[in-house]
């Protein structure tokens, strides 16, 4: 007959619940797992399967009741860590979508909007195209597998303890959010410059020949030029997208070692 004490049962529950909370926090936000098109049951089952695999190797503080106040605080702490890691990956996809929004607005397709199930909002068609391209690039470099591996390693670099985590990791994540604009502008800058030159040329043409209807010929020309530029620039966007996604994974790895992140210098 197998006998076990209540302390052993509490340790078994804690060794499964706390890692599961961090993993579910990551899966709820990080693309492509965090998309609303992925059923919630699939996310939960995937999180449970990953937790069952890595739970025996996760260091757990002994003699700590998961139902106590301290245990609930650890549960909330693990949720915040998982959400921060998933948000780091989501930032890159937000930058890719921003590049699509800038391109779509410049070429005159700002009115062509659809419902995006991932962001639960309205987004342009070009932005959805770039987002799908970013997802395919992320899957092609096995980013989803690397993300799960980094999550598993984070339980050793940032173990589950009663000590509060430092704020340097979240500060670094907040500063990384500013890169959305720079990354989105870098991806869309060649198309924006070419479309700007096209609009300037149309303005000069209208000035030279006032009888031309700018609204009649300008919109078709800019739209066709935009599609041609997207077709030309898409192959060259794969390398920067891959670079940004690799940086996102490294950010997740750094957040997994938040206790070892050096404090940022004060300005």
UniProtKB/TrEMBL annotation:
Transmembrane intervals: 9-30, 36-55, 67-93, 129-152, 180-202, 214-238
Q: InterPro entries, alphabetically? A: FliR, T3SS_IM_R
The subcellular localization recorded is: Cell membrane; Bacterial flagellum basal body
What domain of life? Bacteria
Key word Transmembrane helix present: yes
Q: Which UniProt keywords apply?
A: Bacterial flagellum, Cell membrane, Cell projection, Cilium, Flagellum, Membrane, Transmembrane, Transmembrane helix
Pfam families, alphabetically? Bac_export_1
| Membrane topology value | Multi-pass membrane protein
Key word Cell membrane present: yes
Describe the function of this protein. Answer: Role in flagellar biosynthesis.
Protein family (similarity comment):
Belongs to the FliR/MopE/SpaR family.
UniProt name for this protein: Flagellar biosynthetic protein FliR
């Amino acid at each position: 007959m197998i006998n076990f004490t209540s302390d052993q049962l509490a340790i078994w529950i804690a060794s499964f619940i706390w890692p599961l909370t961090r993993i579910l926090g990551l899966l709820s936000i990080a693309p492509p797992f965090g998309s609303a098109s992925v059923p919630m049951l699939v996310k939960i089952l995937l999180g449970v399967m990953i937790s069952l695999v890595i739970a025996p190797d996760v260091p757990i503080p002994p003699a700590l009741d998961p139902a106590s106040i301290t245990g609930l605080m650890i549960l909330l702490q693990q949720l915040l860590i998982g959400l921060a890691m998933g948000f780091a990956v989501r930032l890159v996809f937000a930058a890719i979508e921003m590049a699509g929004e800038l391109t779509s607005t410049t070429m005159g397709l700002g009115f062509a909007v659809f419902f995006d199930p991932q962001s639960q909002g309205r987004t342009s068609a070009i932005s959805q195209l770039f987002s799908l391209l970013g997802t395919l690039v992320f899957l092609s470099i096995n980013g989803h597998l690397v993300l799960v591996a980094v999550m598993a390693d984070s339980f050793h670099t940032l173990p589950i303890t009663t000590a509060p985590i430092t704020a340097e990791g979240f500060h670094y994540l907040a500063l990384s959010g500013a890169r959305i604009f720079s990354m989105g502008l870098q991806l869309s800058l060649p198309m924006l410059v070419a479309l700007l030159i096209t609009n300037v040329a149309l303005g000069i043409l209208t000035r030279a020949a006032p009888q031309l209807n700018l609204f009649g010929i300008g919109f078709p020309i800019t739209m066709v030029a935009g599609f041609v530029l997207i077709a030309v620039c898409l192959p060259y966007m794969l390398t920067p997208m891959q670079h940004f996604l690799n940086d996102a994974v490294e950010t997740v790895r750094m957040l997994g070692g938040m206790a070892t992140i050096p404090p940022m210098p004060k300005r």
